[in-house]
Amino acid sequence: MKHSGYGRSSTRRLDATFAALANPTRRAILARLASGELSVTELAQPFSMSQPAISVHLKVLERAGLVSRGRDAQRRPVRVEPKPLEAATAWLEGYRNVLERNFRRLDAVLEEMQAAERTAPRRARARTTRRRSKQ
Fold this sequence. Notes:
Largest sheet: 2 strands, antiparallel
Number of strands: 2
Helix content: over 70%
Strand order of the largest sheet: 1-2
Number of helices: 5
Shape: rod-shaped
Strand content: under 5%
Radius of gyration: 28 Å
């Protein structure tokens, strides 16, 4: 499927987004941030890994543009940035639309085949009746 409007930089952003989302810990971090900003310490609490390990995941998410860090006095809250997710969703939506059109065409072909099957026995009986009446 060729996508118009996806230049080299858009492709790189999509690659970074999907690479970041490929890790379950990073997806879990995004899920936690969906309800609001959290500090790195708050983010690290439910995970059985060190805070530095969480920071490494956050750096990957930041490079992909999926999260950003603010400044609130001594606190540096982490928040979700929606644009890369919106771009990934739009990209996937393009494929969903193509697949949906293909399924609709397949459904139409199947319906035609089923209709032909339903009428085929009647045609065969009619041919047999005609042959018998000619004899």
